[in-house]
Design goal:
With about 200 residues, the chain is mainly beta. It has strands at about 5-15, 20-30, 35-40, 55-60, 65-75, 80-85, 90-95, 110, 115, 120, 130-140, 145-150, 150-155, 160-175, 175, 190, 195-200. Strand 8 and strand 9 (about 115) form a beta hairpin.
Amino acid sequence: AADPSLLHDIYFRIGGAEPGKATDSLVVKSSHVIIDDIWAWRADDGDGVGWTANTADHGLIVTGNDVTGYGLFVEHYQKTQVIWSGQGGEDIFFQNEMPYDPPSQAAWMANATTDGYPAFAVTSNVRSFTGYGLGSYCFFNQGLPIEATEAFQAPATAPGVHLHDLLTVFLNGSGSINSVIDGIGAPVTSAAPGTPSDVVSFP
């Protein structure tokens, strides 16, 4: 704790510059780590880009304890883009775009009853985590009404889990994000593009 590891100014691009695939971009298993300025991006344009071409599940997975993130940019991954399962974590600022290109709703389902995937999930085992300034945006560009059930997921009954200043925005295209976090927060749709849905504090 007195001498944490530091990961800073790291950039991932899956596809786009040339064809490429990766299941997970960054996995942090160590404890007492500071992550500062990470841009993990499944490319949305360029060479080798397509739903089955530049496949990438997760941008960041944190299993270590007492990990702090500053300035996480994680975009367009095909499943939950950030999975945080370590204890005592903190993230200050998260910027996200959901994948642009799901070819159908059936191709982008977390399970049989959950449309899409949350952008950022604090897993159910976590008892302590704090997040500030977390945003997720949608632009589904295949001309299909793709829906995401929620942008964020966290255990509401864990006394040490607190998220502040969350928002979602519908940018363009078709579909919606139907709640900000765990069914809380108004949906964002084509009826009001560019208008954020805010949750000031969760739970």
